[in-house]
Fold this sequence. Notes:
Largest sheet: 6 strands, antiparallel, barrel
Strand order of the largest sheet: 4-13-16-15-14-17
Order of helices and strands: HEHEEEEEEEHHEEEEEHEEEEEEEEEEEH
Mean pLDDT: 86
Number of domains: 3
Shape: elongated
Helix content: 25-40%
Number of strands: 24
Strand content: 35-45%
Low-confidence stretches: 2-15
Amino acid sequence: MKKLILWIALCAVAFGTLTMSSEQVRKLGITVHNVRYIQSESMGPFIGTFDYGDEHSYNYTLSTQATVVNVIKKPGDIVTKGEAICRIASAELLSSSYELHDIEQRLKLAQEYAKKDAGLYKDGVLSLRDTQKSNLEVMTLKVKAGEVGSRFTYAGADIHPSEGMVFTIRAKRSGILTLSPLMGGDKIEPFVPYLKISDTNALNAVIMIPPKFISAIKKGSSVLDKENKVIGKITSVSISVNRLNNSGAAMAHITNPDESFRAGTSAEMYIAGVQQSKWVLLPRASVSKYKNKDICFVRTSDGFAPKTLEVQKNFRDYVAVSADGFTPKTQVVVEGIIYLKGLLGGMGFE
């Protein structure tokens, strides 16, 4: 190994580049990692609460109280259209089921009469007025059937009970179950959504913003977690402040969620400022000290070049530095730095 390092030192070329073949890189155990660009200034931390947007969700409601009989699927489960989620006992749905059956029978009879009346009108036996009455009865019953049927649609329930007054609730669409009963015996309150199915990519966050920051936050600003990873974008910012908590609200669409993000939970978040300057995030392992300066080693076409850094901010796993001299394709050394630093003295690097 000493002979290899000595040979590399003798091959160091002008302009501060350590020339090295791929085989030599491999033998020294040198590995590299891509840099990552970020917005150079961010505000926070703010508290953001996760939820799934109603614009990409389907809510289930009842107009009267009901009781959960048993639970088949629970919050967080992925469901497909038509899949059973739970069963509920509802006097309203039982009454509506009987009512709908009666309307459908009357509608079937009314349609038969309307068809006969149309034939009699064509033969000149009935007047136009009598024929129109028959058609009006059919239209009225269709509207009534639609109104009663919508109660089952809003509830997500089968039209007919599975037993007694127990109805099966099914998924009206595929997605993630973001709200649902937790156990049998739970009460379902009137007009309060008791079940919600959302698109899996529709996670949002409501972020509470102190008044002094509201004007600096714009639609489209990046939202970052405490490790400075971009997790979403601001989609709207309130123009007023809630007097109860003295905060405005910014809505963010979460495009890069962490596995820990769950609807109803909260997390610390940061919001990128409006300025356009950039920082580069380097893995902490790639940054080291040399003659009281922060440096890293950048991968070149034929080896590695040392680079002095302007550190802007330290994170747990990354170091933010000025973006000068970096590109989105830049790679820096994360393992094997000790061998490269040993060669700097012979290069006169300052």
